[in-house]
Specification:
This protein is an alpha+beta fold. Helix content is 33%, strand content 16%. It has a 6-stranded mixed β-sheet. It has a 6-stranded antiparallel β-sheet with strand order 10-11-12-13-9-14. Helix 2 links the parallel strand 1 and strand 2. The radius of gyration is 23 Å and the shape is globular. The chain starts with a helix and ends with a helix. Its main location: cytoplasm. It is found in: Cytoplasm.
């Protein structure tokens, strides 16, 4: 029984689960990975290997001085990350990006996991939440139906698996405030902050008509065979709304009522696009009600036609896909534990991060946190100024729980560095300051661990 209490169990052998197992085992913890494949297949996976990359073969930018993803790569390498190490061994030419041969990469991760003396793999499906022990759930966007139902029953979510159409997110400092303004509809709110909670971009009739035409003509993402367009509540794509009638958007998310443009107070807008702050720092704004399944190139063209967004810099473009994720700001604590069942941690994409790198990074962190807990050690708080810290802070409390959607790592999640210029002209110095600060904080955090 004492031995069982010291074992870490991980459900899911994807990028996050494999990384979590590697980190914990290298800290002296016995680990069991519970992976349902290949006995239980998914429509997306093609093999029974661990860490299979389903959507692409890229880990995106490897620039650790000017790119937040590259910085996350750097932090994972400094922590002895399995995913980054194996990616380097199976790297393909891809300019400044880190791309790999997917098959050899997954085979390489699998080989290392199976050869580790403290890790075993149990190829069976887990269908219920464990009632005791030390567990990490890292089942990703394709969590099995049975386990998904068990998680939903515990967390109170009506459904965890759905097609979500995600709205784009824009860097605040790339919005033209000579055309846009801050105002809540009808100036609602008890404080000035509430009365100016929305950023507004006005359109006249000609601009609105052109926008609707562009929406209807834009290339859209197609569904895979066997998939159906069952959207999550409130996530109907804007182009689907536009197909229902040219005035639908103007009477929905683009209604102009209750707003006065201070740049042209005597001109009534025909339609208004609203953006809402997406994080506590106010560095990111999402376009309200603008969930979309347009292809990325079309999105950039269509959305930059909106007055005030001509120079928009996107932290994330919209998209549509099957997803399974928690409302982490309400359900997880700062240690990534389920508040109602603290012996269970979550890691990877199910926590509300988006992307291979981000998922693996959350696995790395969860594995280290679980190992420290099992060993009875107290880990120092993870610095928020690191890439990993900024990301986990966002998903466990920095994001608005009411509008929480999966997020990639980006510099909009970082606390500003005082004295540095905003905007595009100052971003080289600003990004370098972010990465230098993060590297120092991450190195110090790692140095006090076992």
């Amino acid at each position: 029984m004492r031995g069982m209490e010291k074992t870490l169990h991980i459900i899911g052998g994807g990028l996050a689960g494999s990384e979590a197992a590697w980190q914990a085992a290298n800290l002296g913890i016995s680990v069991v990975i519970h992976e349902m494949r290949p006995k239980v297949e998914t429509f997306a996976h093609k093999s029974g290997d661990l860490a299979e990359m389903v959507c692409s073969n890229s880990f995106r930018s490897d620039d650790h001085e000017q790119n937040a993803v590259g910085l996350l790569h750097w932090e994972m390498r400094q922590a002895g990350g399995l995913i980054m190490e194996t990616a380097g061994e199976h790297r393909l030419p891809a300019g400044g990006a880190l791309a790999v041969d997917r098959e050899s990469f997954a085979a390489g991760v699998t080989k290392k996991i199976l050869e580790h003396p403290l890790i075993t793999v149990d190829y069976e499906e887990i269908t219920e939440l464990p009632s005791s022990g030390h567990w990490i759930i890292a089942t990703g966007p394709l969590t099995s139906s049975a386990l998904g139902e068990a998680i939903a029953a515990e967390t109170g979510q009506n459904a965890l698996a759905f097609f979500d159409a995600i709205a784009p997110i824009i860097y605040a400092d790339s919005i033209d405030m000579s055309k846009a303004w801050m105002q809540s509809r009808y100036d609602k709110g008890d404080t000035e902050e509430e009365r100016t909670a929305y950023l507004n971009c006005p359109m006249d009739k000609a601009q609105y008509d052109q926008f609707i035409d562009a929406l209807l003509e834009a290339e859209k993402t197609e569904f895979h065979e066997g998939e159906t367009a069952k959207y999550f509540d409130g996530c109907l794509p804007i182009e689907v709304m536009a197909e229902r009638g040219r005035e639908t958007l103007r009477h929905g998310p683009m209604k102009p009522v209750g707003l006065t443009n201070p740049h042209q107070p005597d001109v009534k807008a025909h339609a208004v696009v609203q953006l809402r702050r997406d994080n506590a720092l106010g560095t990111l704004f999402n376009i309200v009600g603008f969930q979309t399944k347009m292809k990325y190139g079309a999105q950039a063209t269509v959305f930059k036609s909106i007055p005030g967004l001509e120079g928009a810099n996107f932290a994330r473009l919209g998209g549509i896909h099957r997803n399974t994720f928690l409302n982490s700001p309400t359900l997880l604590d700062g240690q990534m534990r389920l508040k109602s069942q603290p012996h269970i941690r979550f890691a990877g994409q199910i926590t509300g991060v988006e992307g291979y790198v981000e998922s693996a990074a959350m696995g790395l962190l969860a594995g280290r946190l679980a190992a420290a807990e099992i060993k009875g050690e107290v880990m120092p708080d993870l610095p928020q100024d690191t890439a990993t810290g900024a990301l986990v802070h966002h998903i466990t409390g920095g994001a608005d729980a009411k509008t929480f959607q999966p997020m990639n790592i980006n510099f909009g999640l970082f606390r500003p560095v005082e004295g540095l210029k905003g905007g595009r002209r100052g971003r080289t110095d600003r990004y370098k300051a972010y990465t230098d600060r993060a590297k120092n904080a991450w190195s110090e955090w790692l140095s006090v661990q076992g």
